Amino acid sequence: MATSDAILEVTDANFTEEIEGGEGLQMIDFWAVWCGPCKMVSPIVEALAEEYQEKGLRVGKLDVDTNPSVTTRFRVTSIPSILFFKDGELVDTVVGAVPRPDLEEKILQHL
Length: 111
Prior knowledge:
Layout: E1 7-9, H1 15-20, E2 25-31, H2 36-52, E3 57-63, H3 68-73, E4 81-86, E5 89-95, H4 100-110
Parallel strand pairs: 1-3, 2-3
Antiparallel strand pairs: 2-4, 4-5
């Protein structure tokens, strides 16, 4: 569940409208409640959402257990997986619990 105002809760139901219909850079964190590495990445994702919101980054979180359609469509088999969309198109993917500089580099690369 999204814990910050800067983070959108992404679901199978709103994915097409919110992400594919969106503009600019969007970073979506595919996660699950039971996933330890996801819990390590979550504060990093939240901090980046706050920091880059005014620079045009939209951040969302998608629970893989409750949203199987989008998870399967993008072949997410390992979590955490962070997918980057630019103007509705998938442009990059980061798999695993990576440090903040790795995610920040991807954000800056695509902004």
